[in-house]
Amino acid sequence: MRNITLLNKDWKFVKSAETASAALAAQGEAVTLPHTWNAKDGQDGGNDYYRGTCWYTKELNVPTLSEDEEAWLEFTGAAMTADVYVNGEKLAHHEGGYSTFRVNITEYLKEENELAVSVDNSDNDRVYPQKADFTFYGGLYREVNLLIVPKAHFALGYAGGPGIKVTPEIEGNNAKVTVETWTEGPAKTVTFSVDGQCAEAEVKDGMACAVFTLENVHLWNGVEDPYLYTMKAALDSGDEISTRFGCRTIAFDPNEGFFLNGKSYPLRGVSRHQDRLGVGNALTKEMHEEDLDIIMEMGANTIRLAHYQHAQFFYDLCDERGIITWAEIPYITQHMPNGRENTLSQMKELVVQNYNHPCIVCWGLSNEISASGGVTDDLLENHRLLNDLCHSLDKTRPTTMAHVFMLEIESPLVNLPDIASYNLYFGWYLGELPQNDSFFDEYHEKYPDRCIGFSEYGADANAAYQSSAPERGDYTESYQVVYHDHIINMIEARPFMWATHVWNMFDFAADGRDEGGKNGQNQKGLVTMDRKLKKDAFYVYKAHWSKEPFVHVCGSRYVDRAEEVTEVKVYSNQPQVTLFVDGEEKETKSGKYLFTFEVPLSGEHEITAKSGDLSDSIKVRKVAEPNMAYQFGEKGGVVNWFDKEDFKPGYFSIKDTLGVLKSHPVAGAIVNKLMDGASAKRGDVAESVKDNPALQKMMAAMSLESMLKQAGDAVTEEQVKQLNAALQQIPKAE
Ligand code: GCU
Fold first, then answer.
1. What residue's CA is closest to ligand 1, atom 3?
2. Which among 139, 360, 394, 420 counts the fewest CB atoms within 10 Å?
3. How far is 134 from 683, CA to CA, in rounded Å?
């Protein structure tokens, strides 16, 4: 038998020590796993969270082993690199903060055992991620287990894998199921069993395989019917393992999108980071479960598990609930020539450890990797090696990539993976919403035989900020609704997209960000980082995707309203909505998803939307002046700093585009200096991509004024006036 003991209790955390013995001797702090040392400083902004080498130590109680037993340690998440010492001996080094690795400690055990693990999340040029828009938490942030196994056991030391690989192939109403196992030690025979069938196989060169036929196979059919089988394998030594698997077919069509079991199944969902307010990435199973509950309440049927390998428990949940996932490694933002080996080892671990999950349909090679540094030969070669590695490890799934919006669609990188996807932020970082539509239309027209997806799109929203005239860059909850309403309708008109993933389901920690009225957070979430507040945009998707009847009145946090007549948006998946003001029926509208009403304001009002026995209400009140608390920045976010007449014609001003300004040596120098300062408050990614030529080209059409508006409190009104005054000194015509 295989005995597994969870080792999460009674650890000591030591922030710094030179050696294992020094760590063991240090006072330290008693902690329970999962644990990260960046739970607080990784989420409070300033881009100053602790990155270094810390230690975890523990008295390791191992039962006396028989001659025929071995003891292994299993680490399921040690970020980002780890060294494992048992009784002073260094037994393992692992590079990659998101995958499982194991260590055979048998030969080093004594009566009493001291375990010391050094964990490091320092800056380096070899282990990904190093440059990205999320906090690289350090710590033993997932479970650690002690495994006692017979000397002859299923493999524990191969890429942290489960030692068993199940490949179902649908054949008519049946499934041919091939199971392969790998063993270590003097193993002789394996007995397999699945769905009441049994088969025995000899172990040859450390492998044993069998093939079964499941007649009238029960398909794994997404959220409708995620049926799972269990494959068991038992060794003559007594070691036993099992894995669940699902029988399904997946297909990707350049015009019709994604197919599951031969039927069109548009993948419409969200991305998710593995962190939460106050705990960092040291999540409990309950937290994982709650995340999936919220995602499914909204009606998503797919999750892009960005930007790294997520917890086995979460992939298991997606198997059980039928949620299709995109799995990826953190090869992100900036290609590092010294990082090639690490991308290959992280990808090998991702595929070997997760091959059996029916929920996973693709392997993501990288994310926006050309953003800072462009496309180089070394980067292309790194991707070709990753692509080949995935194809050699897994013949059943395609590879994909999430390209940065600046990457020219003609680049050889775009079509390197089997299926491609783009991250676009038109209508948020720059440009206008319809540019998302035209981008995909142009791409699909130019490359009608290529599958294309929408791997990221989003807009930051601080639920404290509201506006009756929402506009790009104002960080209001109101604009986030406008943004996502446009995008969801754009997507529904383009069934060729094989998958679309909102960035992001939840606000998440990016310690380098200090914007939109919050420090340390990327606020593109549809739900806040504590999971307590569903922003109005959550209901845009719930209306389009969820079958659970509901009505939702937007604007519950927009109480003080200065306008005489206010717009009230109601989202619902019901065909008809009636609006009541102060209990009096006002208007009934029929339609789909969004129902918009105009309500005159004269005082305090209760506004209620009803559909059948469903209802939702908000309270508003007429005020004389706009409530400045609803706008971010010193004087409120998006303000008009100048009146028309402030501008001398024939001289530069903030009304000019970045391209025009940069064409002049003096005006250009002023703008460059300003942009360096602004991007420094947007975290590492902004800092590293600001010089990207493709981005520069795109931003050239942006007016300096609109860029400044989006910088919010990064620039004061006084700075804007001084900047404009300086530019107004510079005549345009020489
Ligand atoms: C990029 C990147 C994300 C990042 C997002 C953003 O597309 O892939 O990791 O968080 O943009 O800027 O919000």
1. 133
2. 394
3. 9
